[in-house]
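We modelled the chain as a single entity of 199 amino acids. Its sequence is:
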Amino acid sequence: MRSVPEWALLSSGCAPVVLVGGWTIAALLEGPAYNPATQTISVLGAYGAAGFWVMTGAFLGLGVCHLLTAWGLRPAALAGRVALGGGGAVAVVVALLPAPSSGGSLVHGSVVAVGFTLLAVWPVLAADRGRPAPWGLRPVPSLMVTLLMCAGAGWFMIELHHRGAAGIAERLLTCMQSLWPLVVVASCLRHPDTEERAK
């Protein structure tokens, strides 16, 4: 039996498709009133939004994908798997606690911040310092990805504070966060020693 099950490739590959597909369809339903460059994804999933159910489903799907991937990614360090699974659980909570139709929400914002943090730090927490580790679990790539995600989160906060291109910053950040599990799973499946190392 492989140390990383084949279905983990499906769960990790579906995460970015579900997320991007969800916000694309929800934005189309919202129409020209929604500006994807300046408005956040949460606006699409807010109560009363035309794409509310689409984004709710996308957040739930994303969360399930991350939870399944964390479960199947056995070569990763436990702390990283817990952080990835926690990020998935937070995505489910975001679906259950959407933003209000107008104004901000401290609860929603806090939950989103926790999710961003967990999904930013999981790569470095999952790193395998043994040799030879799959590429996606090596310390240097893992640290670089975590630093990129933290920089993306910082950019998003700056844009949000200045009412700038928050939508663009958030989409780039969430794309990185949803794609990295796929990269890690693929590198594990291609690595010849993963099977033995996970036993």
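As a brief sanity check on the tokenised model: The chain has eight helices and no strands. The CA atoms of residues 40 and 67 lie 24 Å apart.
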